[in-house]
Amino acid sequence: MSYFAAAVARVDGGWTAGEVSLRGVTDIEEVADRLRDVEPDADLSLLFVEADDTYLVVLRLDEGEDLRVFGSDSAYAEESRLGALLVGDLKTSVTGLEEVDEPRASGDDDTEQPAVDPEADPVGDADLLADLGISAQKLHALCAHEGSMPADVTAEICQVLGCGDEVEELREV
User: Which residue range forms the structural domain that includes residue 141?
Assistant: First the structure.
């Protein structure tokens, strides 16, 4: 299974980005170490792992500590060794989505959230980007939007954060 792993790190109010190789990692702590290595003095580091245009995992470190993880679908753990390493130990339910309102019965489709893929089973901490402007509900909606690929979700998140150009440059290399 192919993957793309892009790290962004915030230092002194600006963002740096780097592609991260996850070849040979043996546990989630080793993944966190590789994320720390991108910018050791970062106050915030994020790693976006996109696999086979199907799965997205977002990892977050604050000041190099307190690893938080969100996965778009628990099925990734069954599909690959890297998926099992990243999301295999996460709880099967997503935290932060308890407050989701039921869709309104009105015909106003413009304000309703996209339909959630009934097959997807997001796992982990969906609130990991809430303080950065991406609520748990928004993250879940981005991942569940029909036709949206992991690269699209990463691009949208990075645009909100202000590091979209840095991540796009990594894709062009």
Answer: 3-94+121-170
